[in-house]
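User: Please predict the structure of the protein below. I'd like the answer in structure-token form so I can feed it into my own downstream comparison script.

Assistant: Understood. Taking the following sequence of 324 residues as input:
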Amino acid sequence: MARRYFSLTVVLLLLAGMLVLPAPAPAQKVLKIGYPTWVGYGPLFLADRKGFLEKRGVKVEFVLMEDTKTRYVALAAGKIDGLMTTIDTMVQRARRDFQIAAVMAFDDSKGGDGIVARKAITNVAGLKGKKVAYGEGSVSHFFLGYLLQQSGLSFKDITSVNMTAGDAGAAFVAGKVDAAVTWEPWLTKGKGAAHGHLLVDSGKTPGLIVDVLVFRKDVLKARGGDIRNVVAAWHEGVDYWKAYPDESNKIMAEAVGGWLKDSKVFAETLTGIRYYDAAANRQYFAANGGVMKTADFAIKFWERQGKTQMKLKASDIINTSYIR
């Protein structure tokens, strides 16, 4: 009888508007991050699948966008909140009305990028006068520019053929160009061609090609806590991968998908990069760490190419506080 009286009292209070029940939890705002198909981003997908993001109260929607330009246009338009890319691409897109910053490193290339060339070309200097395919404004352009500079050459010394990395690799395999700046799976296909070999890869340039997580600065200001949780989940994902590599590679291959959906291919491609765990990120994002040096070199390089939209310094596009 007491329960009946209690229930009746609750109903009467509700009708009278005198009893206030807790409001339902607000819908979780999704953090949208654009990405291309690349092995270097795997542990963030792993963090999602293993619940590392969820337990920190942040929900991420991964938006597949293979083209770099498309990702930046979407970020500027507010269609996505952040993106995965290399440091050098940031330099070309930053402008006064579109302020962006990298908050952490995913990986660096230690063989994942390279140049395949005809066997008669035995060093970078041998590219002089040759047809070289690469994507203008891409990380391949940046990588090639660095190597040419180290060999005392410039882009004026080669015949440039503007193609995406995949098309460049295919053109080389078909014998249409003398060399191609590309990445997997085209490095393997190129060096496996009867006329081809691997001229050089990014194992010779540690810290030059680094994938980073980038957000608009207004997103950093509004959702700093969520972004710190994404960074923490990434580091947990890397640690889980270290402890359980076989399981992790299968999960990451399925999640990243595309040409990496086969876990065997994923694992093979993984040998060309290094994941940044918490210690590596702390070192790279230190006050005078590698991230500032890489950004500074990229700024100077793209300024010489006439590809920048404003005067920049490294601290304009790098935010080290999310690592510290």
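That's the full token string. The CA atoms of residues 32 and 61 lie 5 Å apart.
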